[in-house]
Amino acid sequence: MARTIKKAEKYFTICIATVFMGQIYLSPFSTAFRFTLGVVVLSLLLIYFKDISIITATNIIGVWVFLFRSFVYIVSHPQANFDEIIHLYYPVGIFYILFGILFVLLNVRGKLNKPIMFIASLWFCDSMSNMVEVFLRREIEAYSFEKVILAIILMGLGRALLTIYIYNAVIYYMNRYEREQREKKYRELVMLIANLKAELFFLRKSTIDIEEAMNKSYDLYEKLEDTTLKDNALLVAKDIHEIKKDYIRVVTGIEKTLAEEKCEP
């Protein structure tokens, strides 16, 4: 159950991020067709969330984007009819669905370690999906075919390059952060070991002092003639001996810990 909820949260995150980043766009032909940053965000999240179904995610996004843009259009054009809205925005749903299918067929996730292949595959997914969307939008026929295809190809390349740049930048800073955390941990460990060695030095010295105090107490026991005082001196000697044993146990424990730390690579 918890796993299902986590997956649902990931799908929700992808949908929200893609839909809202889709509001950052260029509209080169002054029509409902647009180039958005949503595709870049979608690509990055599909790579990041490796345990979710790409097809499921892009199908959901296709529906969400269609509904969201339709809603925005209805709010700004109250007189719009249902057929007009469908005509304007169903192609964008097809774009995302086709994008997901191509993303899987070309195994874009599996090409992260091959930058050229990754860029080429993502570029193809983007450009081919946009070409299908353009074909479905009849109003685009009013523009030069060469101009439209060139714009799609250039934008597809730009978004593919931006995606891999952001991905590599994120990986670089994550690795850098992890390296800094490891170095910080190592410095703290070195300081801890140094402090333990200092404490060990003083504990050893204290053990010697305790040994001397115990010997003096025993000497006092030997010299005293009064039975009560002798018994008290002996008890003091025994107590000091117990304290010495505790100190030795502590010293041994610290020495063992330091030896283990030294043996670790």
From TrEMBL:
Residue intervals passing through the bilayer: 9-26, 56-76, 88-108, 148-174
Domain of life: Bacteria
Keywords associated with the record: Membrane, Transmembrane, Transmembrane helix
Record-given protein name: Histidine kinase
Origin species: Crassaminicella thermophila
